[in-house]
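User: Can you recover a sequence for this backbone? Please restate the input before giving your answer.

Assistant: Of course. Working from this structure:
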């Protein structure tokens, strides 16, 4: 049986970090997200408008368990997230990241003319900023 309709958006994204405090501080202080929920040593959930960035300690979530029947999950290595930037905000993001002493790993223009800026969070996940038109979405 086919799905009733394609999903409209991603509701949540998981990234993995063993130092949850430092990684949550990055998303709060540098990116501007708001902490929504915390389970010390296990996870920190950060609200991003109408979606959630879930920061998990992979050593704990790979074990599973807990009060809810959520299957074990986790990843090793560097993950990736891309934040949608408003048209014309890329210069402001570059300036803000530089002012916050966040090293810009890459700043370039794709063949379709969209600019991407890449940095790393404290867990070494790749964090990108780009306009939605990178994927031909309306901005």
């Amino acid at each position: 049986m086919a799905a009733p309709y394609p999903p409209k958006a991603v509701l949540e994204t998981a990234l993995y970090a063993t130092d949850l405090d430092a990684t949550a501080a990055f998303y709060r202080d540098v990116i501007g997200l708001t902490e929504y929920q915390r389970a010390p040593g296990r996870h920190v959930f950060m609200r991003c408008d109408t979606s959630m960035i879930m920061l998990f300690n992979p050593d704990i979530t790979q074990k599973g368990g807990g009060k809810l029947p959520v299957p074990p999950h986790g990843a090793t290595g560097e993950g990736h997230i891309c934040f949608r930037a408003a048209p014309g905000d890329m210069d402001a993001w570059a300036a803000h990241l530089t002012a916050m002493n966040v090293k810009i790993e890459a700043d370039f223009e794709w063949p379709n003319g969209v600019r991407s800026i890449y940095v790393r969070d404290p867990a070494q996940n790749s964090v990108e900023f780009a306009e939605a038109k990178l994927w031909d979405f309306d901005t």
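That completes the design. Strands lie at 12-16, 34-39, 43-48, 51-56, 80-84, 106-109, 115-120, 126-130.
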